[in-house]
Design brief:
51% of the residues lie in helices and 11% in strands. It has 457 residues and is mainly α. The structure holds 1-deoxymannojirimycin (DMJ).
């Protein structure tokens, strides 16, 4: 009896002191994020200007294809605008308009080009009103359209921007189902319905291939429509398919997307969610994770979760499921704290790292921002401050920011992907900046964190 009263008191005092910790200084943190953004941006400008990405260790550049498509400037532009970096944003916009052309004989990956370039051009157009950005987006949209010409309507993976030749019949739900925010917005802004229809069909065709228990797999073939890998999860190759079911409903008020979301999420919560009490922990502290299961049987395949999966608390929060969102966010943070930065893949049962890389991913920050927006709980500001400090400590280099090869040893790798600017810095900044910086309830973030506003009826 005395022992349990003592334990209860210890618990109450610990909980009270955790809650009474002062909230971090948002203004100071927002200024720090902006300074770090500029540090990375200046590194890109100095060593990689005109190319896709900076190589932050060797101080060179990396282009995705034989010719650059200005991935970093296009991805970074709306973040600069939101940060109030007007001169930088104006110069970058001018550079993009003077130099970016899609008339190139290169095979590009439809999904990556859509979320980074089409999404970036559309949001920057909406933030600036510069019609030339919309014209670039429309030109790109037309060049990408051939991907949808498969027997199933599911898009091929690659398309040649000049010839329209497609290839890559084996693809995945993230690539077939993460197009409607961008193509749909392009339709609404240009009045050309075809973009919306093609991307919506791809989303519906993906959904139509769910199993009898309501799950989808990791890979399928756009010509046969058959699954080639039936592992189901919320991680790489599936993740943003779920995000776009929900967000396409919210952005376009699309009833089919609403139905598909509402019919999909129960299966995810039934078969992929994994709730358990860790040995030695209290019954009341059951953890919530999302692992892998076979799409046909629902049988658990692996108990892994990772940096990409950490987007899901944001989606749960947006859908109104704050309870699961909070609990899953606590799990993501637990994963982060094991090594002071998160791995690409983690076995949440054994707490072991499965894939040790960290390519500067934003998802855990995105979820922290969403949870803070909905709850105003200062714990998410403190969480964000910890994430930011760790991120700077482990990833900053003298030329910018570097991915980690290994989160345990903290060995760096020579890569700085453009989503660092589009997403990681943007979500850090929005978490700490005054809410008026961006009207959260009026925008939908595409999966690359480009905010799109519904300006149509
Ligand atoms: C981004 O390109 C997008 O967020 C995508 O949905 C997943 N991968 C990266 C960031 O981790």
């Amino acid at each position: 009896m005395i022992k349990s009263i003592t334990l209860l008191l210890v618990f109450l005092i610990t909980a009270a002191s955790a809650n009474s910790q002062p909230a971090p200084n948002k203004q100071k943190l927002a200024a720090e994020v902006k300074a770090e953004f500029l540090h990375a941006w200046n590194g890109y400008k100095k060593h990689a200007w005109g190319h896709d990405d900076l190589r932050p260790l060797t101080k060179g550049f990396h282009d995705w294809y034989a010719e650059p498509l200005l991935m970093t400037p296009v991805d970074a532009l709306d973040t600069m605008i939101l940060m109030g970096l007007k001169d930088e944003a104006d110069a970058t916009r001018k550079y993009i308009l003077d130099n970016l052309s899609f008339d190139k004989d290169i095979d590009v990956q439809n999904f990556e080009i859509t979320i980074r370039l089409l999404g970036g051009l559309l949001s920057s157009y909406q933030l600036t009103g510069d019609l030339r950005l919309l014209a670039l987006a429309e030109d790109l949209g037309h060049r990408l359209l051939p991907v949808f010409e498969s027997p199933t309507g599911l898009p091929y993976k690659f398309v040649n921007l000049k010839t329209g030749k497609v290839r890559g019949a084996e693809t995945n739900p993230a690539e077939t189902g993460t197009l409607l925010i961008e193509f749909g917005t392009l339709s609404k802004l240009t009045g050309k319905q075809i973009f919306f229809d093609k991307a919506k069909r791809a989303l519906v065709e993906t959904y139509n291939r769910r199993s009898t228990i309501g799950l989808i797999g990791t890979r399928f073939n756009v010509e046969t429509g058959k699954w080639t890998n039936t592992d189901s999860h919320i991680s790489a190759e599936i993740d943003s398919y779920y995000e776009y079911l929900l967000k396409s409903w919210l952005l376009f008020g699309d009833r089919d997307c609403k139905r598909m979301w509402l019919e999909s999420i129960p299966a995810v919560n039934k078969y992929l969610a994994d709730e358990f009490v860790r040995e030695g922990e209290r019954q009341s502290s059951a953890e919530l994770w999302y692992g892998h299961a076979d799409m046909n049987t629902g049988k658990r395949t692996t108990t892994t979760y990772g940096a990409l999966d950490a987007f899901f608390p944001a989606v749960l929060a947006l859908s109104g499921d704050l309870n699961r969102a909070r609990r899953l966010q606590a799990s993501s943070f637990l994963m982060w704290k094991q090594h002071g930065i998160e791995p690409e893949e983690f076995n949440y049962r054994t707490m072991e790292v499965v894939h040790a890389g960290y390519p500067l991913r934003p998802e855990i920050v995105e979820s922290t921002y969403h949870l803070y927006h909905y709850t105003k709980d200062p714990r998410y500001l403190r969480m964000g401050a910890t994430l930011f400090r760790d991120f700077v400590t482990h990833c900053k280099t003298d030329a910018g920011y570097a991915a980690l090869k290994n989160v345990i040893t903290k060995e760096k790798s020579d890569s700085m992907q453009s989503f660092l600017f589009a997403e990681t810095f943007k979500y850090f900044y929005l978490l700490f900046a005054p809410p008026k910086t961006l009207a959260f309830d009026k925008v939908t973030f595409n999966t690359e964190a480009h905010p799109v506003r519904r300006t149509w009826k």
